[in-house]
């Protein structure tokens, strides 16, 4: 393979030979370390996306990369036709870490969501006694759970859905953060589960009311349906709790002792469970739920492979040993405080919202305008990489290994860029 000599050349190659399923910011990255990335020309950037919160532990964390290379030189893939000597220890580690009886290992986030949907349906028929093939799962407006045919069947995003039918049945969509709507939907027949993001990341970092997730947990219990938390983006330290359903604690896997903990029946993890070095995802549940999975009912060639197990243990150890959850909570407060002060001085930003280091600012323009995109292009020129989500919203989610000093430097870049942008527009 020839190496590209310039950003321009790399972009031209992707345009010519790759499917056009993304619209990236025009920057070509060739190196990452901690909170930084470098482009092909050697320009250095702060990463303020963290690959959609997969790189919580920072780019190329030596402990995680070390675990991967060591395992890759020993044994990479056996398939589940045989046992391997890493999977069991990994399964023990991850279930104790998050406080569940069992884990089902997969590779990507969408696969883990699909797995959770299958488990919930099977549980509905075999344990709850729901009418055969009539099981329904409650989902929420503006959700993002991945890109498979079943998952896009209940998406609100027309680009994600249009011309991909026929769609999968069995989903009821209600308003997010609406307890009454949830209670009403739970009274319908044949409900098996509620699939929810504790904070809607892709929708623009929609944070529900403080008690909403606890209410979801309580109502699910009351109506005997499974509470399925998609923590693929919010989990693993990102929002200042080990999980977003932990509330504001940093109890690191002992959240059940905390009054704020909204205990899911099914926990869906991906992204940062590998620190962004390898595709790893996981579905966790207790025995009475996971029991419905028996030999032949579900699987994946790569799911549970030894490299994934070694990587995930190292990635979770880093979160705990480097106290990244606590750092995310502390820096998040500093970030929102600075943005709120700044917002008081500008007309271009109306709002900052978020939890821990999953935050977004709302740009004061039409959702269809290119203002947020243009600001992100300027941020890039000034050495900080972020991306708009849902038109006029910019998500800010740096790696959790950031220091307070670096965060202040990033806030300076953001504030100066927006100020310059504002004066150049007027
Ligand atoms: C990214 C994401 C997914 C999908 O994960 P993939 O690895 O891209 O398939 C699902 N749910 C949420 C909340 C996500 O952020």
Automatic annotation (TrEMBL):
Cofactors (names): pyridoxal 5'-phosphate
A GO term, aspect molecular function: ornithine aminotransferase activity
EC number: 2.6.1.13
Example GO BP: L-proline biosynthetic process
GO cellular component: cytoplasm
Biochemical pathway: Amino-acid biosynthesis; L-proline biosynthesis; L-glutamate 5-semialdehyde from L-ornithine: step 1/1
Keywords (A to Z) from UniProt: Aminotransferase, Pyridoxal phosphate, Transferase
InterPro entries, A to Z: Aminotrans_3, Class-III_PLP-dep_AT, Orn_aminotrans, PyrdxlP-dep_Trfase, PyrdxlP-dep_Trfase_major, PyrdxlP-dep_Trfase_small
Pfam family, one: Aminotran_3
Entry keyword annotation includes Transferase: yes
Family: Belongs to the class-III pyridoxal-phosphate-dependent aminotransferase family.
Protein name: ornithine aminotransferase
Native source organism of the sequence: Roseivirga spongicola
Gene that this sequence comes from: rocD
């Amino acid at each position: 393979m020839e190496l590209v000599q310039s950003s321009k050349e790399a972009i031209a190659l992707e345009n010519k030979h790759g499917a056009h399923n993304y619209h990236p910011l025009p920057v070509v990255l060739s190196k990452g370390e901690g909170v930084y990335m470098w482009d092909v020309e050697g320009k250095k950037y702060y990463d303020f996306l963290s690959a959609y919160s997969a790189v919580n532990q920072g780019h190329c964390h030596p402990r995680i990369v070390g675990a991967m290379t060591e395992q890759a030189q020993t044994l990479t893939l056996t398939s589940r036709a045989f046992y391997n000597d890493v999977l069991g220890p990994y399964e023990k580690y991850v279930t104790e870490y998050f406080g569940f009886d069992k884990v089902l290992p997969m590779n990507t986030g969408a696969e883990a969501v699909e797995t959770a949907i299958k488990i919930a349906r099977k549980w509905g028929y075999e344990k709850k006694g729901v009418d055969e093939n009539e099981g329904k799962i409650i989902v929420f407006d503006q959700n993002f759970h991945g890109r498979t045919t079943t998952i896009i069947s209940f998406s609100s995003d027309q680009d994600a859905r249009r011309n991909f039918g026929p769609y999968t049945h069995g989903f009821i969509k209600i308003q997010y953060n609406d307890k009454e709507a949830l209670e009403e939907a739970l009274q319908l027949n044949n409900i098996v589960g509620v699939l929810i993001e504790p904070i809607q990341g892709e929708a623009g970092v929609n944070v529900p009311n403080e008690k909403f997730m606890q209410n979801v947990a309580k109502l699910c219990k009351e109506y005997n349906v499974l509470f399925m938390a998609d923590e693929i983006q919010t989990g693993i330290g990102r929002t200042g709790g080990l999980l977003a359903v932990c509330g504001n604690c940093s109890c690191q896997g002992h959240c059940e002792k905390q009054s704020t903990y909204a205990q899911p029946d099914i926990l869906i993890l991906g992204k940062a469970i590998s620190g962004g070095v390898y595709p790893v995802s996981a579905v966790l549940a207790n025995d009475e739920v996971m029991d419905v999975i028996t030999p032949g009912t579900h699987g994946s060639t790569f799911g549970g492979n030894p490299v994934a197990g070694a990587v995930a243990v190292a990635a979770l150890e880093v979160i705990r040993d480097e106290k990244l959850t606590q750092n995310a909570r502390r820096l998040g407060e500093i970030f929102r405080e600075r943005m709120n002060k700044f917002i008081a001085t500008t007309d271009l930003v109306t709002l900052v919202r978020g939890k821990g280091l999953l935050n977004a600012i709302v740009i004061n323009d039409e959702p269809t305008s290119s203002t947020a995109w243009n600001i992100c292009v300027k941020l890039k020129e000034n050495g900080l990489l972020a991306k708009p989500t849902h038109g006029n919203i910019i998500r800010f989610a740096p790696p959790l290994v950031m220091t307070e000093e670096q965060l202040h430097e990033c806030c300076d870049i953001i504030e100066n860029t927006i100020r310059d942008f504002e004066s150049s527009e007027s």
